[in-house]
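Hey, I was hoping to borrow your eyes for a little while. I've dropped the whole record in just underneath, so have a look:

——
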Amino acid sequence: MRKAAFLPLLLILIASNTFSLTPAKILERIDQIRAPGDTFVFDLKITYKKEKEDIIQKFTVRVKDADKSLVKFTYPEANKGRLFLMVGNNMWIYIPGTRRPIRISPQQRLLGQISNGDVARVVFSLNYNAKLLGEEKIGESQCIKLELTPKSEQATYSRILLWAEIKSFNPIKAEFYTASGKLLKTAFYKGYAEVLGKERPLVLEIYDELRKGEYSIMEYSNMKVADTPKAFFQKTYLKHIR
């Protein structure tokens, strides 16, 4: 009886400690689950599931000082060597053989339900303000629910609803909305495994709410803390990167 009575008390203590944090701090804690720091490297595979075929693209992503990202296309062969550069909210693509990088938008779709910004930016707190909406159960997980709104017009989405476990801050689910308020897509954070000292979601399943039946899978691997030279994040240097 004592053990059974202790568990609800423990959950109350965990919840009260979580809700004592500001929404911004809660979002930072969630981001720390997804990213191992401000400067790191990882590989990414995107599989776009359609009715009759799977379309696959692969990338290596280098992040520096949290707000700079370099995305190198590694598969398929036709895209090999292309580069995305994101510095702050500014983004460019470089295609081998062209004279200079082309300015692009983080909101632009890359593949299936995945936008350019989804690939180049792992964390939310750089681009969004957080508001605490309360507590809600998702499946078997008791979660905190946050509403994220853009800090600037360059943010990829107009509104995000984000659910994370109260106990661990592990993200569980996110909904992404258009400027008109329409639900664009729903993401589920899965494939948790210990990487660099923390349990992190290595799989995102993203379901298209406008084209029912279509979804994409983002798979993260080879995540490590590693620096990248500053020159790699200058658009004039992209033609030299191999």
